[in-house]
Write a structure and sequence with these properties.
Layout: E1 9-11, H1 13-43, H2 51-75, E2 77-79, E3 95-100, E4 105-112, E5 123-125, H3 129-134, E6 142-147, E7 150-160
Helix pairs in contact: 1-2
Amino acid sequence: MEENNSKEIILTQEGYDKLESELELLKTTRRKEVAERLKVAISFGDLSENAEYDEAKKEQAALEERILKLENMTRVAVIIDESNVNLDIITVGSVVKIYDEDFDEELEYTIVGSAEADPYDGKISNESPVGKALLGRAKGDVVEVTVPDGIAKLKVVDIKR
């Protein structure tokens, strides 16, 4: 298991609900599907040379591992009350509009906990280099962040929920 055994996981309500939905799907529908695959594979006989059985057992192990991980994550989750997000400084839960001076473009990110980070969906982790650099900053602040391409200069344009 990962280090998340006791480390709290910061989530928005949306992120928590997503984890709960996935967990419910895995515990009900997916468990039944895998059990059915195992049953069919067992019916083929001789388990020692049964590729279908081996695959179904691997799938079952991966499924149970994911269920345990999700159960642990939801157990230690700390849900951010987004209605209380401070609009003066950037915190987890803030929606931040930044101006990237190098690329002459404005970007908008939601700062979230690492468990629900999805940069392609505009959600960056509070533990990522950019997320860390933005935390505690205010509108108008310029931060320099080391990124794979070098150093990015980002100006905080707006903070909202």
